[in-house]
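Figure caption, in words: inputs first, then the predicted bound structure.
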Amino acid sequence: MNIDVLIIGSGGAGLSAALSAKKNGAKVLVVGESYPTRSQTSMAQGGINAVLDNSKGDSVQKHMEDTIKASHNLADPKMVKMMCEDAPKVIEWLDSIGVPFSRTADGKIAQRRLGGTKYERACYSQDYTGLKIIQTLFDNCLKEQIEFLNRHLLLDLIVEDGVCKGALLFDIKNGEVKTLFSNTVILATGGYGGIFYGYTTNNHSQNGDSIAIAVKNGVEVSNLNFVQFHPTGLKSSSVLISESARGAGGKLLNSDGERFVDELLPRDKVSEAIAKEIKNGKDVFLDITHLGEDFIEENLPQERKLAIFYEGVDPVKSPLPIKPVAHYSMGGIKVDENLETSVKNLFAVGECSDSKVHGANRLGGNSLLEIVAFGLRAGENALKAEKFPEPQREYGFDLEEIFDKEPKINFYKEQKELGKKLYELGGVLKTKESLKELFEYILDLESKLDLMGIYDKGKTLNTNLVDFIKFKNSILVAKEYAKSSLEVIK
Ligand SMILES: Cc1cc2nc3c(=O)[nH]c(=O)nc-3n(C[C@H](O)[C@H](O)[C@H](O)COP(=O)(O)OP(=O)(O)OC[C@H]3O[C@@H](n4cnc5c(N)ncnc54)[C@H](O)[C@@H]3O)c2cc1C
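Bound structure (flavin-adenine dinucleotide present):
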Protein backbone atom coordinates (compact mmCIF):
# COMPACT_ATOMS: atom_id res chain seq x y z
CA MET A 1 0.00 0.00 0.00
CA ASN A 2 1.78 3.15 -1.01
CA ILE A 3 -0.50 5.82 0.52
CA ASP A 4 -0.17 6.21 4.29
CA VAL A 5 -2.75 8.96 4.69
CA LEU A 6 -5.55 9.60 2.20
CA ILE A 7 -7.25 12.91 2.96
CA ILE A 8 -10.69 13.57 1.50
CA GLY A 9 -11.43 17.30 1.46
CA SER A 10 -9.03 20.13 0.67
CA GLY A 11 -10.25 22.88 3.00
CA GLY A 12 -8.38 24.16 6.05
CA ALA A 13 -8.79 20.93 8.02
CA GLY A 14 -7.60 18.71 5.16
CA LEU A 15 -4.57 20.84 4.32
CA SER A 16 -3.51 21.19 7.98
CA ALA A 17 -3.72 17.39 8.33
CA ALA A 18 -1.75 16.96 5.10
CA LEU A 19 1.06 19.25 6.25
CA SER A 20 1.46 17.56 9.61
CA ALA A 21 1.30 14.02 8.20
CA LYS A 22 3.86 14.94 5.56
CA LYS A 23 6.13 16.59 8.13
CA ASN A 24 6.05 13.34 10.07
CA GLY A 25 7.19 11.41 7.01
CA ALA A 26 3.92 10.11 5.55
CA LYS A 27 3.07 9.53 1.91
CA VAL A 28 0.01 11.77 1.65
CA LEU A 29 -2.65 12.26 -1.02
CA VAL A 30 -5.31 15.00 -0.78
CA VAL A 31 -8.54 14.53 -2.72
CA GLY A 32 -11.08 17.29 -3.29
CA GLU A 33 -14.32 17.64 -5.17
CA SER A 34 -13.16 21.13 -6.10
CA TYR A 35 -9.93 23.10 -5.47
CA PRO A 36 -8.50 24.12 -2.06
CA THR A 37 -8.99 27.83 -2.74
CA ARG A 38 -12.71 27.26 -3.38
CA SER A 39 -13.35 25.45 -0.11
CA GLN A 40 -15.64 26.93 2.50
CA THR A 41 -12.56 27.91 4.52
CA SER A 42 -11.87 30.60 1.93
CA MET A 43 -15.14 32.31 2.91
CA ALA A 44 -14.37 32.78 6.61
CA GLN A 45 -14.17 36.44 7.45
CA GLY A 46 -14.33 37.28 11.15
CA GLY A 47 -11.28 35.60 12.62
CA ILE A 48 -9.61 32.75 14.49
CA ASN A 49 -9.63 32.66 18.27
CA ALA A 50 -6.56 32.43 20.46
CA VAL A 51 -5.38 33.97 23.69
CA LEU A 52 -2.03 35.63 22.96
CA ASP A 53 0.48 37.37 25.24
CA ASN A 54 -1.00 40.75 24.29
CA SER A 55 -4.67 39.70 24.85
CA LYS A 56 -5.82 42.20 27.51
CA GLY A 57 -7.47 40.55 30.56
CA ASP A 58 -8.10 37.32 28.66
CA SER A 59 -6.84 33.83 29.51
CA VAL A 60 -7.02 30.28 28.13
CA GLN A 61 -9.35 29.49 31.04
CA LYS A 62 -11.74 32.26 29.92
CA HIS A 63 -11.59 31.03 26.33
CA MET A 64 -12.60 27.58 27.60
CA GLU A 65 -15.39 29.00 29.76
CA ASP A 66 -16.85 31.09 26.91
CA THR A 67 -16.74 28.08 24.59
CA ILE A 68 -18.51 25.82 27.08
CA LYS A 69 -21.09 28.46 28.02
CA ALA A 70 -21.97 29.14 24.35
CA SER A 71 -22.27 25.36 23.81
CA HIS A 72 -25.11 25.16 26.40
CA ASN A 73 -22.68 23.15 28.53
CA LEU A 74 -22.80 20.37 25.95
CA ALA A 75 -19.19 20.63 24.78
CA ASP A 76 -16.69 18.12 26.17
CA PRO A 77 -14.39 20.07 28.56
CA LYS A 78 -11.45 17.77 27.73
CA MET A 79 -11.72 18.47 23.99
CA VAL A 80 -12.30 22.20 24.59
CA LYS A 81 -9.18 22.34 26.79
CA MET A 82 -7.13 20.63 24.09
CA MET A 83 -8.33 23.12 21.44
CA CYS A 84 -7.97 26.27 23.55
CA GLU A 85 -4.51 25.27 24.79
CA ASP A 86 -3.41 24.57 21.21
CA ALA A 87 -4.66 27.99 20.04
CA PRO A 88 -1.57 30.19 20.75
CA LYS A 89 0.69 27.60 19.08
CA VAL A 90 -1.67 27.45 16.10
CA ILE A 91 -1.45 31.23 15.57
CA GLU A 92 2.32 31.15 16.02
CA TRP A 93 2.54 28.37 13.41
CA LEU A 94 0.20 30.09 10.94
CA ASP A 95 2.17 33.32 11.36
CA SER A 96 5.44 31.44 10.80
CA ILE A 97 4.27 29.83 7.56
CA GLY A 98 3.13 33.18 6.15
CA VAL A 99 -0.48 34.04 7.06
CA PRO A 100 -0.62 37.86 6.81
CA PHE A 101 -2.48 38.66 10.03
CA SER A 102 -3.59 42.27 10.56
CA ARG A 103 -1.25 44.02 13.02
CA THR A 104 -1.46 46.60 15.78
CA ALA A 105 0.54 49.84 15.55
CA ASP A 106 3.37 48.16 17.50
CA GLY A 107 3.50 45.19 15.13
CA LYS A 108 1.68 42.62 17.27
CA ILE A 109 -1.06 40.39 15.83
CA ALA A 110 -4.29 42.42 16.05
CA GLN A 111 -7.35 40.90 17.72
CA ARG A 112 -11.01 41.83 17.77
CA ARG A 113 -14.13 40.95 19.66
CA LEU A 114 -16.74 38.52 18.32
CA GLY A 115 -20.00 37.40 19.99
CA GLY A 116 -20.23 35.35 23.20
CA THR A 117 -17.18 36.88 24.88
CA LYS A 118 -16.06 40.14 26.50
CA TYR A 119 -12.56 39.84 25.07
CA GLU A 120 -10.77 40.79 21.88
CA ARG A 121 -9.70 37.27 21.02
CA ALA A 122 -10.11 36.78 17.28
CA CYS A 123 -6.95 37.17 15.16
CA TYR A 124 -7.80 38.29 11.64
CA SER A 125 -6.63 39.40 8.19
CA GLN A 126 -9.04 42.28 7.54
CA ASP A 127 -12.21 40.32 6.75
CA TYR A 128 -10.41 37.84 4.50
CA THR A 129 -9.12 35.63 7.33
CA GLY A 130 -10.13 32.24 5.90
CA LEU A 131 -8.93 33.13 2.40
CA LYS A 132 -5.50 34.14 3.67
CA ILE A 133 -5.25 30.98 5.78
CA ILE A 134 -6.22 28.60 2.95
CA GLN A 135 -3.93 30.33 0.44
CA THR A 136 -1.01 30.04 2.85
CA LEU A 137 -1.75 26.40 3.70
CA PHE A 138 -2.04 25.56 -0.01
CA ASP A 139 1.23 27.36 -0.84
CA ASN A 140 2.94 25.33 1.87
CA CYS A 141 1.44 22.06 0.62
CA LEU A 142 2.80 22.82 -2.86
CA LYS A 143 6.18 23.66 -1.37
CA GLU A 144 6.18 20.33 0.47
CA GLN A 145 5.23 18.58 -2.79
CA ILE A 146 2.05 17.11 -1.35
CA GLU A 147 0.04 15.40 -4.07
CA PHE A 148 -3.50 16.52 -4.95
CA LEU A 149 -6.35 14.88 -6.83
CA ASN A 150 -8.65 17.83 -7.50
CA ARG A 151 -12.14 17.42 -9.00
CA HIS A 152 -12.57 13.94 -7.51
CA LEU A 153 -15.77 13.20 -5.60
CA LEU A 154 -15.91 10.76 -2.70
CA LEU A 155 -18.41 8.03 -3.61
CA ASP A 156 -17.84 5.47 -0.88
CA LEU A 157 -15.41 4.15 1.71
CA ILE A 158 -13.72 0.78 1.67
CA VAL A 159 -14.34 -0.82 5.04
CA GLU A 160 -13.36 -4.42 5.77
CA ASP A 161 -13.92 -6.05 9.19
CA GLY A 162 -14.31 -2.70 10.92
CA VAL A 163 -11.15 -1.23 9.36
CA CYS A 164 -11.11 1.52 6.73
CA LYS A 165 -8.75 0.67 3.88
CA GLY A 166 -9.44 3.30 1.28
CA ALA A 167 -12.07 5.07 -0.77
CA LEU A 168 -13.92 5.03 -4.07
CA LEU A 169 -13.79 8.25 -6.03
CA PHE A 170 -15.46 9.69 -9.10
CA ASP A 171 -13.07 11.49 -11.42
CA ILE A 172 -15.31 14.36 -12.52
CA LYS A 173 -13.15 15.34 -15.49
CA ASN A 174 -12.82 11.90 -17.06
CA GLY A 175 -15.99 10.26 -15.77
CA GLU A 176 -14.17 7.28 -14.25
CA VAL A 177 -14.57 5.54 -10.91
CA LYS A 178 -11.24 5.09 -9.12
CA THR A 179 -10.35 2.81 -6.21
CA LEU A 180 -7.66 4.03 -3.83
CA PHE A 181 -6.27 1.86 -1.06
CA SER A 182 -4.60 3.60 1.87
CA ASN A 183 -3.52 2.66 5.36
CA THR A 184 -5.65 5.45 6.82
CA VAL A 185 -8.33 7.82 5.57
CA ILE A 186 -9.07 11.27 7.00
CA LEU A 187 -12.47 12.73 6.15
CA ALA A 188 -12.27 16.54 6.04
CA THR A 189 -15.20 17.33 3.77
CA GLY A 190 -16.78 20.22 5.69
CA GLY A 191 -20.29 20.72 7.02
CA TYR A 192 -23.83 20.09 5.79
CA GLY A 193 -25.32 23.61 5.96
CA GLY A 194 -25.72 23.46 2.17
CA ILE A 195 -28.80 21.21 2.51
CA PHE A 196 -30.65 24.41 3.58
CA TYR A 197 -30.47 25.39 -0.10
CA GLY A 198 -31.20 29.10 -0.56
CA TYR A 199 -31.23 29.71 3.20
CA THR A 200 -27.60 29.25 4.08
CA THR A 201 -24.30 31.10 4.11
CA ASN A 202 -22.72 27.88 2.84
CA ASN A 203 -21.78 26.83 -0.61
CA HIS A 204 -24.64 24.60 -1.82
CA SER A 205 -22.22 21.77 -2.54
CA GLN A 206 -21.45 21.59 1.20
CA ASN A 207 -24.18 19.02 1.73
CA GLY A 208 -22.54 16.49 4.03
CA ASP A 209 -21.57 13.79 1.50
CA SER A 210 -19.18 12.11 3.89
CA ILE A 211 -21.83 12.08 6.62
CA ALA A 212 -24.25 10.25 4.32
CA ILE A 213 -21.48 7.85 3.31
CA ALA A 214 -20.54 7.33 6.96
CA VAL A 215 -24.15 6.50 7.87
CA LYS A 216 -24.37 4.02 4.97
CA ASN A 217 -21.18 2.32 6.20
CA GLY A 218 -22.30 2.11 9.83
CA VAL A 219 -19.79 4.75 11.03
CA GLU A 220 -21.25 6.50 14.09
CA VAL A 221 -22.51 10.07 13.70
CA SER A 222 -23.70 12.34 16.50
CA ASN A 223 -25.67 15.50 17.23
CA LEU A 224 -26.78 16.04 13.63
CA ASN A 225 -29.60 18.24 14.99
CA PHE A 226 -27.02 20.84 16.05
CA VAL A 227 -27.02 23.28 13.14
CA GLN A 228 -26.13 26.88 13.91
CA PHE A 229 -28.15 29.70 12.39
CA HIS A 230 -26.13 32.86 11.91
CA PRO A 231 -28.04 36.02 12.82
CA THR A 232 -26.91 38.16 9.91
CA GLY A 233 -27.40 36.65 6.47
CA LEU A 234 -28.38 39.24 3.85
CA LYS A 235 -32.15 39.14 3.43
CA SER A 236 -32.42 38.29 -0.26
CA SER A 237 -29.28 36.23 -0.90
CA SER A 238 -28.44 34.72 2.54
CA VAL A 239 -24.82 35.85 2.01
CA LEU A 240 -23.08 36.28 5.37
CA ILE A 241 -22.28 39.60 6.98
CA SER A 242 -19.63 38.68 9.51
CA GLU A 243 -20.07 38.87 13.26
CA SER A 244 -17.09 41.23 13.29
CA ALA A 245 -19.55 43.92 12.10
CA ARG A 246 -21.49 43.55 15.37
CA GLY A 247 -18.22 43.13 17.29
CA ALA A 248 -17.21 46.56 16.01
CA GLY A 249 -20.46 48.11 17.28
CA GLY A 250 -23.06 47.21 14.62
CA LYS A 251 -26.65 47.51 15.89
CA LEU A 252 -29.67 45.34 15.14
CA LEU A 253 -32.84 47.36 14.54
CA ASN A 254 -36.39 46.33 13.68
CA SER A 255 -38.54 48.21 11.18
CA ASP A 256 -39.72 50.51 14.01
CA GLY A 257 -36.09 51.54 14.50
CA GLU A 258 -35.91 49.77 17.90
CA ARG A 259 -33.01 47.70 19.24
CA PHE A 260 -34.47 44.46 20.57
CA VAL A 261 -31.49 42.28 21.60
CA ASP A 262 -27.93 42.56 22.91
CA GLU A 263 -26.07 42.13 19.61
CA LEU A 264 -23.13 40.31 21.21
CA LEU A 265 -25.00 37.48 22.87
CA PRO A 266 -24.13 34.03 21.45
CA ARG A 267 -25.46 33.44 17.94
CA ASP A 268 -28.39 31.18 18.84
CA LYS A 269 -29.86 33.80 21.18
CA VAL A 270 -29.50 36.63 18.65
CA SER A 271 -30.91 34.49 15.82
CA GLU A 272 -33.92 33.54 17.93
CA ALA A 273 -34.65 37.19 18.78
CA ILE A 274 -34.43 38.16 15.08
CA ALA A 275 -36.62 35.23 13.95
CA LYS A 276 -39.29 36.30 16.46
CA GLU A 277 -39.29 39.88 15.15
CA ILE A 278 -39.65 38.57 11.58
CA LYS A 279 -42.46 36.22 12.67
CA ASN A 280 -44.23 39.26 14.13
CA GLY A 281 -44.18 40.87 10.69
CA LYS A 282 -41.19 43.18 11.15
CA ASP A 283 -38.10 43.57 9.02
CA VAL A 284 -34.72 43.48 10.71
CA PHE A 285 -31.63 45.52 9.82
CA LEU A 286 -27.94 45.54 10.71
CA ASP A 287 -26.83 49.14 11.06
CA ILE A 288 -23.12 49.99 10.84
CA THR A 289 -23.51 53.44 9.28
CA HIS A 290 -22.25 55.12 12.49
CA LEU A 291 -18.86 53.34 12.16
CA GLY A 292 -18.02 55.57 9.21
CA GLU A 293 -16.55 54.88 5.78
CA ASP A 294 -12.88 54.95 6.86
CA PHE A 295 -13.39 52.30 9.56
CA ILE A 296 -15.51 50.10 7.28
CA GLU A 297 -13.01 50.31 4.42
CA GLU A 298 -10.13 49.49 6.76
CA ASN A 299 -11.74 46.65 8.74
CA LEU A 300 -14.76 45.35 6.84
CA PRO A 301 -13.99 45.92 3.15
CA GLN A 302 -15.35 42.56 2.02
CA GLU A 303 -18.63 43.02 3.94
CA ARG A 304 -19.20 46.32 2.16
CA LYS A 305 -18.54 44.78 -1.26
CA LEU A 306 -20.80 41.79 -0.55
CA ALA A 307 -23.65 44.02 0.65
CA ILE A 308 -23.46 46.26 -2.41
CA PHE A 309 -23.13 43.34 -4.82
CA TYR A 310 -25.73 40.96 -3.37
CA GLU A 311 -28.21 43.30 -1.66
CA GLY A 312 -27.72 46.55 -3.57
CA VAL A 313 -27.21 48.41 -0.28
CA ASP A 314 -24.07 50.29 0.77
CA PRO A 315 -23.64 49.75 4.54
CA VAL A 316 -21.75 53.04 4.78
CA LYS A 317 -24.99 54.81 3.83
CA SER A 318 -27.92 52.57 4.91
CA PRO A 319 -28.78 49.73 7.33
CA LEU A 320 -28.66 46.24 5.77
CA PRO A 321 -31.79 44.05 5.64
CA ILE A 322 -30.92 40.69 7.25
CA LYS A 323 -32.35 37.36 8.41
CA PRO A 324 -30.90 34.36 10.30
CA VAL A 325 -29.68 31.56 8.01
CA ALA A 326 -28.12 28.10 8.39
CA HIS A 327 -24.40 28.58 8.86
CA TYR A 328 -22.51 25.86 10.66
CA SER A 329 -22.84 22.15 11.47
CA MET A 330 -21.80 21.35 15.02
CA GLY A 331 -22.84 17.70 14.68
CA GLY A 332 -21.18 15.24 12.35
CA ILE A 333 -19.08 12.10 12.29
CA LYS A 334 -18.39 11.08 15.87
CA VAL A 335 -14.70 11.11 16.80
CA ASP A 336 -12.67 10.37 19.92
CA GLU A 337 -9.83 12.50 21.34
CA ASN A 338 -7.52 11.17 18.59
CA LEU A 339 -10.03 12.32 15.96
CA GLU A 340 -10.62 8.67 15.08
CA THR A 341 -14.13 7.50 14.18
CA SER A 342 -15.90 4.34 15.31
CA VAL A 343 -14.21 2.57 12.37
CA LYS A 344 -10.51 1.82 12.79
CA ASN A 345 -8.05 3.86 10.68
CA LEU A 346 -10.84 6.23 9.62
CA PHE A 347 -10.41 9.73 11.02
CA ALA A 348 -12.63 12.79 10.64
CA VAL A 349 -11.71 16.41 11.25
CA GLY A 350 -13.12 19.89 10.77
CA GLU A 351 -16.75 20.73 10.18
CA CYS A 352 -17.72 17.23 9.01
CA SER A 353 -16.77 15.84 12.43
CA ASP A 354 -18.36 16.07 15.84
CA SER A 355 -15.33 16.52 18.07
CA LYS A 356 -17.55 17.91 20.84
CA VAL A 357 -15.88 21.30 21.04
CA HIS A 358 -18.97 23.30 20.06
CA GLY A 359 -21.86 21.47 21.74
CA ALA A 360 -25.19 22.97 20.65
CA ASN A 361 -23.79 26.35 19.60
CA ARG A 362 -20.36 27.32 18.26
CA LEU A 363 -18.53 30.42 19.39
CA GLY A 364 -17.51 32.69 16.47
CA GLY A 365 -13.81 32.22 15.63
CA ASN A 366 -13.62 28.69 17.05
CA SER A 367 -14.10 26.81 13.78
CA LEU A 368 -10.99 28.12 12.06
CA LEU A 369 -9.19 27.27 15.27
CA GLU A 370 -10.61 23.75 15.38
CA ILE A 371 -9.77 22.96 11.75
CA VAL A 372 -6.12 23.93 12.12
CA ALA A 373 -5.53 22.68 15.69
CA PHE A 374 -7.28 19.34 15.16
CA GLY A 375 -6.22 19.09 11.51
CA LEU A 376 -2.59 19.09 12.67
CA ARG A 377 -3.40 16.50 15.31
CA ALA A 378 -5.36 14.27 12.89
CA GLY A 379 -2.46 14.18 10.44
CA GLU A 380 -0.08 13.16 13.19
CA ASN A 381 -2.42 10.58 14.72
CA ALA A 382 -3.26 8.96 11.38
CA LEU A 383 0.38 8.16 10.86
CA LYS A 384 0.55 6.32 14.19
CA ALA A 385 -2.36 4.01 13.26
CA GLU A 386 -1.90 0.26 13.13
CA LYS A 387 -1.08 -1.21 9.71
CA PHE A 388 -3.48 -3.73 8.15
CA PRO A 389 -3.14 -5.84 4.99
CA GLU A 390 -4.36 -4.33 1.73
CA PRO A 391 -7.78 -5.56 0.45
CA GLN A 392 -7.50 -8.61 -1.75
CA ARG A 393 -10.60 -8.07 -3.82
CA GLU A 394 -11.71 -5.46 -6.34
CA TYR A 395 -14.11 -2.66 -5.50
CA GLY A 396 -16.43 -0.71 -7.77
CA PHE A 397 -19.38 1.67 -7.78
CA ASP A 398 -22.31 1.21 -10.14
CA LEU A 399 -23.23 4.44 -11.93
CA GLU A 400 -24.99 2.68 -14.85
CA GLU A 401 -28.22 2.52 -12.90
CA ILE A 402 -28.30 6.34 -12.82
CA PHE A 403 -27.45 6.64 -16.52
CA ASP A 404 -30.13 4.13 -17.54
CA LYS A 405 -33.04 5.95 -15.90
CA GLU A 406 -35.14 8.62 -17.69
CA PRO A 407 -36.09 11.29 -15.13
CA LYS A 408 -39.73 12.22 -14.65
CA ILE A 409 -39.16 14.71 -11.83
CA ASN A 410 -36.63 17.57 -11.98
CA PHE A 411 -34.43 17.05 -8.91
CA TYR A 412 -33.07 20.63 -9.03
CA LYS A 413 -36.59 21.90 -8.24
CA GLU A 414 -36.86 19.38 -5.39
CA GLN A 415 -33.46 20.48 -4.05
CA LYS A 416 -34.71 24.07 -3.70
CA GLU A 417 -37.94 22.92 -2.10
CA LEU A 418 -36.00 20.75 0.37
CA GLY A 419 -33.95 23.80 1.40
CA LYS A 420 -37.10 25.88 1.92
CA LYS A 421 -38.85 23.18 3.94
CA LEU A 422 -35.78 22.61 6.11
CA TYR A 423 -35.61 26.34 6.84
CA GLU A 424 -39.31 26.89 7.42
CA LEU A 425 -40.07 23.71 9.37
CA GLY A 426 -36.65 22.85 10.83
CA GLY A 427 -35.18 26.33 11.28
CA VAL A 428 -34.67 28.63 14.28
CA LEU A 429 -38.25 28.48 15.58
CA LYS A 430 -38.82 24.76 14.94
CA THR A 431 -41.42 22.93 17.03
CA LYS A 432 -42.29 19.28 17.52
CA GLU A 433 -45.21 19.67 15.12
CA SER A 434 -43.17 21.41 12.41
CA LEU A 435 -40.45 18.76 12.69
CA LYS A 436 -42.97 15.95 12.28
CA GLU A 437 -44.25 17.65 9.14
CA LEU A 438 -40.66 18.03 7.91
CA PHE A 439 -39.87 14.37 8.53
CA GLU A 440 -42.99 13.25 6.62
CA TYR A 441 -42.07 15.56 3.76
CA ILE A 442 -38.54 14.09 3.56
CA LEU A 443 -39.86 10.51 3.59
CA ASP A 444 -42.18 11.41 0.71
CA LEU A 445 -39.32 13.04 -1.19
CA GLU A 446 -37.18 9.96 -0.64
CA SER A 447 -39.93 7.72 -2.02
CA LYS A 448 -39.92 9.80 -5.25
CA LEU A 449 -36.17 9.41 -5.80
CA ASP A 450 -36.80 6.60 -8.27
CA LEU A 451 -38.51 9.10 -10.56
CA MET A 452 -35.51 11.43 -10.56
CA GLY A 453 -32.29 11.19 -12.51
CA ILE A 454 -29.93 12.90 -14.92
CA TYR A 455 -30.51 14.63 -18.25
CA ASP A 456 -26.88 14.77 -19.33
CA LYS A 457 -25.70 11.29 -20.33
CA GLY A 458 -22.19 12.45 -21.22
CA LYS A 459 -19.13 10.80 -19.68
CA THR A 460 -16.82 13.75 -19.09
CA LEU A 461 -17.34 16.78 -16.84
CA ASN A 462 -20.88 15.65 -16.09
CA THR A 463 -21.89 18.09 -13.35
CA ASN A 464 -25.52 16.98 -13.68
CA LEU A 465 -24.45 13.53 -12.47
CA VAL A 466 -22.36 14.99 -9.63
CA ASP A 467 -25.30 17.17 -8.53
CA PHE A 468 -27.63 14.16 -8.53
CA ILE A 469 -25.26 11.97 -6.49
CA LYS A 470 -24.94 14.82 -3.99
CA PHE A 471 -28.69 15.44 -3.90
CA LYS A 472 -29.26 11.80 -2.91
CA ASN A 473 -26.77 12.32 -0.06
CA SER A 474 -28.55 15.56 0.92
CA ILE A 475 -31.84 13.71 1.38
CA LEU A 476 -30.18 11.21 3.68
CA VAL A 477 -28.51 13.96 5.73
CA ALA A 478 -31.77 15.97 5.89
CA LYS A 479 -33.58 12.87 7.15
CA GLU A 480 -30.96 12.35 9.87
CA TYR A 481 -31.21 16.06 10.79
CA ALA A 482 -34.99 15.91 11.14
CA LYS A 483 -34.84 12.60 13.00
CA SER A 484 -32.29 13.71 15.56
CA SER A 485 -34.03 17.09 16.00
CA LEU A 486 -37.30 15.25 16.74
CA GLU A 487 -35.55 13.00 19.25
CA VAL A 488 -34.46 15.91 21.44
CA ILE A 489 -37.20 18.54 21.08
CA LYS A 490 -39.57 18.91 24.03
C1 LIG B 1 -19.33 32.73 5.04
C2 LIG B 1 -18.64 32.02 6.18
C3 LIG B 1 -17.88 32.74 7.08
C4 LIG B 1 -17.24 32.09 8.15
N1 LIG B 1 -16.46 32.81 9.02
C5 LIG B 1 -15.79 32.17 10.01
C6 LIG B 1 -14.92 32.89 10.88
O1 LIG B 1 -14.73 34.08 10.74
N2 LIG B 1 -14.29 32.20 11.88
C7 LIG B 1 -14.46 30.85 12.06
O2 LIG B 1 -13.87 30.29 12.97
N3 LIG B 1 -15.26 30.15 11.22
C8 LIG B 1 -15.92 30.76 10.20
N4 LIG B 1 -16.72 30.05 9.35
C9 LIG B 1 -16.74 28.59 9.47
C10 LIG B 1 -15.48 27.98 8.86
O3 LIG B 1 -15.10 28.71 7.72
C11 LIG B 1 -15.70 26.53 8.44
O4 LIG B 1 -16.32 25.83 9.48
C12 LIG B 1 -14.37 25.86 8.13
O5 LIG B 1 -13.65 26.62 7.20
C13 LIG B 1 -14.58 24.45 7.63
O6 LIG B 1 -13.34 23.94 7.22
P1 LIG B 1 -13.19 22.43 6.73
O7 LIG B 1 -11.80 22.26 6.29
O8 LIG B 1 -13.76 21.53 7.76
O9 LIG B 1 -14.18 22.34 5.48
P2 LIG B 1 -14.22 23.16 4.11
O10 LIG B 1 -13.38 24.35 4.11
O11 LIG B 1 -15.67 23.31 3.85
O12 LIG B 1 -13.59 22.15 3.08
C14 LIG B 1 -14.23 20.95 2.73
C15 LIG B 1 -13.55 20.37 1.52
O13 LIG B 1 -14.13 19.10 1.24
C16 LIG B 1 -14.42 18.99 -0.14
N5 LIG B 1 -15.52 18.04 -0.31
C17 LIG B 1 -16.79 18.14 0.14
N6 LIG B 1 -17.50 17.05 -0.23
C18 LIG B 1 -16.66 16.26 -0.94
C19 LIG B 1 -16.78 15.01 -1.60
N7 LIG B 1 -17.93 14.34 -1.63
N8 LIG B 1 -15.70 14.50 -2.22
C20 LIG B 1 -14.52 15.15 -2.24
N9 LIG B 1 -14.34 16.34 -1.63
C21 LIG B 1 -15.39 16.88 -0.99
C22 LIG B 1 -14.75 20.42 -0.56
O14 LIG B 1 -14.60 20.59 -1.95
C23 LIG B 1 -13.72 21.20 0.26
O15 LIG B 1 -12.48 21.22 -0.39
C24 LIG B 1 -17.38 30.69 8.30
C25 LIG B 1 -18.15 29.96 7.38
C26 LIG B 1 -18.77 30.62 6.33
C27 LIG B 1 -19.61 29.82 5.37
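Residues 8-14, 31-34, 39-41, 43-48, 129-130, 153-154, 188-190, 201-202, 206, 209, 240, 328, 350-351, 365-368, 371 surround flavin-adenine dinucleotide (CB under 6 Å).
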